[in-house]
Amino acid sequence: MRTFALSLVAVLLNVPSAGSASAAAKKKPAPAKTVSAPAASASELDKLKGDFKWGMSPDEVLAKMVQKIEGRYDERLKKTAQDPSKYDKIQKEMRAEIDKAKKHSLVKFDGQKTGYDVSIIDQEFGHNVSESMLVAKEDQSSRYFFFVGDRLYKMFIAFDKDMLEGKAFKEFGGLMQARFGKAREIFVDERTKAGVSHKLDHFLWSSKSGDVLRLVDRSAFYDVFCLVIYDGNIARQQAEAYKAHGKPERSDALVEAVTTKPLNNRDENDNVIDRITGQEVKKPGDNAPKDIVVPMPKAPTPTEVNKRDVTPPAEEETKPAKKSKGGKDSKKDDKPPAGLEL
Predict the structure, then answer these.
(1) 8 A C-beta contact, residue 108 and residue 130
(2) Residue-wise pLDDT tens digits, 222-245
(3) Contacts of 7 (CB under 8 A, 6+ apart)
(4) What is the pLDDT of residues 93-121, one digit of tens each?
(5) Cα separation values, 36 from 12, 39, 146, 177, Å
(6) Which of 1, 94, 111, 141 matches a 20 to 30 Å C-alpha distance to 184?
(7) Which ranges of 202-327 does DSSP label H, i.e. alpha helix?
(8) Comparing C-alpha atoms, which of 189, 176, 259, 154 is closest to residue 225?
(9) What is the pTM of this model?
(10) φ, ψ for residue 120, nearest 5 deg
(11) CA distance 13 to 105
């Protein structure tokens, strides 16, 4: 009997009350909201990332960048091994490219203005959230490496113009889907002269590993399309860090400049740079009420025109012409104002 009582007490102690269960449920964090998208080909994602792995330090990434440069010169050096002058020339080219890569020092986004705050990557980073970046030039693209706490978590690949071959964004997206698999098309509403247009903004892929891939359109100002691949978990943490630092939803200053409703019918993009830098040069039509108004002569009435076509009676020809108050003949008043003669 005593054993049964002890067992009953143990069971009661292990069963939480309704109140404690409710409290536990309240403490459970809500799952992060994510946009569902088809999974990209794992093998193609690995090819895109290449030798770069999430978590690498800036020094490790730079070392890989140097290795890639040396790899591009291997074949040329082998072919010219028997020609000292050509071999030396190629070696100098390789060293110059390596030195150039090393000069691209780590850019830290710590609140100070950088040359990237209004650029092709201006939507990819935030200040004062432990982010930094390296950039490298590849054969057909430029690759930007983004770090959090000196650990790689994102790569931004901007293709060279020659790769696009005049293709529209949707057409280029089709080529990328042939490589990575079916993507989800993400649209945004954009202000235009005619109102609001529903525009294709980017293509989106997910992956079983947690990586996220985006194809973004940056052709409006830079004539390029770009692939962005990143660790989805770290990106969500960074999004929370942005909110904690009061960082508003990021807007593209260049897009803002051309989506503002124009004041007239001229090309709305012809002073984009002026509006961005704040050194706007006014053009005719910018301030319509202040524009110069050219005076025009008053048009004659139909009665006045008819009188000119009819020969006056004989008795009226003998009468002297009436003079105006200013003492001048009325015929002189028919002349247009000075300065408008053709």
Answers:
(1) no
(2) 889 999 999 999 999 998 888 887
(3) none
(4) 999 999 988 887 899 999 888 889 999 99
(5) 43, 9, 24, 16
(6) 141
(7) 219-222, 232-244, 253-259, 272-277, 302-309, 314-317
(8) 176
(9) 0.62
(10) -65, -20
(11) 61
